[in-house]
Design brief:
2 domains, Immunoglobulin-like, single chain
Length: 356
């Protein structure tokens, strides 16, 4: 959790990365808890990344574990397309149908070669695939929390996402990074990327990307209030590469550890009873006076083209463990205790939407 900064000030990347790195060990514990595949020879590293909101208040990002991303990474060989060999349906379709930006650019520093393989830009979601090969053995968390990024040279006001690696050997691995930006983004822009190594290396990439066509948006503005927690689902959007649900929440609470808006998920089922698989979607939150407000966009696999109706059920996921680090305006860190056992459960009503 971090106090927000003035947008005219320099973006405090070092403080944000310090907070994220402090959660890496906890992320590893969650991966081991949720994914029995981690006991195999191949190890996967998964955790979230986030930037600082530019409005006054307090910013928080909580760890998000993505089983779908973990599963997809375990299928990727060191050669070929990262997306094409993933078992994420949306990425497979994007690669097969030529919807990705194929980059293939390699930067080598200190015997470590990082290849920016391809990028997918759909809705406000950016997905990046990497190949990494080294002349020497690499530590498990050598690249920390993944890449920093800019949009046309600037840091976005707020973003969430997930970064995962599949360690194929002591010297080779692949990675997928997903970034979701909460603000409106241009149809095309220059994406800047920086990957940092634990020995101070910096791999720089810059490439123009363009949003895919054929994205359909359904405004919803569906709102319900349960036990003081206000949930507003603002939009459902979809394309052949995936679907997303955008929501906002607000509740009269000043303790982020007890707030519930950032722990809202959605179950999406079509008229045939088929449930959409969720991919990712963290949340950005801020304290505004005596209320905590969250924004998020949850990502899902593509819907079948024949589907005409979806039933959406919001639900609350109370974390079974956690904690975190608070960083004040002076850069001082403070450990935060886990209070999940004090979070009050809520039950939301389901609602239906028509797919044109």
């Amino acid at each position: 959790m971090k106090k927000s900064h003035d947008p005219s000030e320099e973006f405090p990347q070092d403080q944000v990365r310090a907070a994220i790195r402090s959660g890496i060990i906890q992320a590893k514990e969650q991966v081991d808890t949720f994914s029995p595949r981690m006991k195999k020879k191949k190890r996967k590293i998964l955790f979230t990344l986030c930037s600082v909101a530019t409005v006054l208040g307090i910013f928080i990002c909580s760890l998000y574990y993505s089983p779908a991303l973990a599963s997809s990474l375990s299928q990727i060989p060191i050669i070929g397309s990262v997306f094409g060999n993933s078992d994420l349906i949306g990425l497979q379709k994007a690669q097969k149908n030529g919807l990705t930006s194929k980059i293939g650019e390699t930067e080598t520093i200190n015997g470590i070669s990082v290849t920016l393989d391809e990028i997918l830009y759909d809705q406000n979601n950016i997905t990046i695939g990497l190949f990494i090969e080294s002349d020497k053995e690499l530590d498990e968390f050598y690249f920390g929390a993944g890449m920093d990024f800019t949009i046309n040279g600037k840091n976005p006001a707020g973003s969430t996402g997930s970064y995962g690696e599949d360690i194929l050997s002591a010297t080779s691995r692949t990675a997928i990074q997903e970034i979701n930006v909460s603000e409106e983004m241009p149809e095309e822009f220059e994406l800047g990327l920086i990957l940092r190594g634990e020995n101070g290396e910096k791999w720089f990439f810059s490439t123009p990307i363009e949003k895919i066509t054929g994205i359909q948006k359904i405004p919803l503005n569906h709102s319900q209030t349960v036990d003081g927690l206000i949930l507003t689902v603002t939009e459902f959007s979809f394309s052949e590469t995936g679907a997303s649900i955008t929501y906002e929440s607000s509740e009269e609470e000043t303790d982020f550890d007890l707030s519930r808006g950032g722990n809202i998920e959605f179950r999406v089922v079509d008229e045939n009873g088929t449930e959409l698989t969720g991919r990712s979607g963290g949340a950005t939150g801020e304290l505004v006076k005596d209320k905590i407000e969250f924004k998020s966009s949850k990502q899902f696999d593509p819907i079948d083209p024949t589907v005409t109706e979806l039933t959406i059920t919001p639900y609350l996921v109370i974390p079974s463990g956690g904690g975190g680090v608070e960083i004040d305006e002076n850069g001082k860190e403070k450990e935060l205790e886990y209070k999940g056992n004090l979070i009050k459960p809520v039950e939301f009503d389901s609602f239906k939407i028509k797919i044109p």
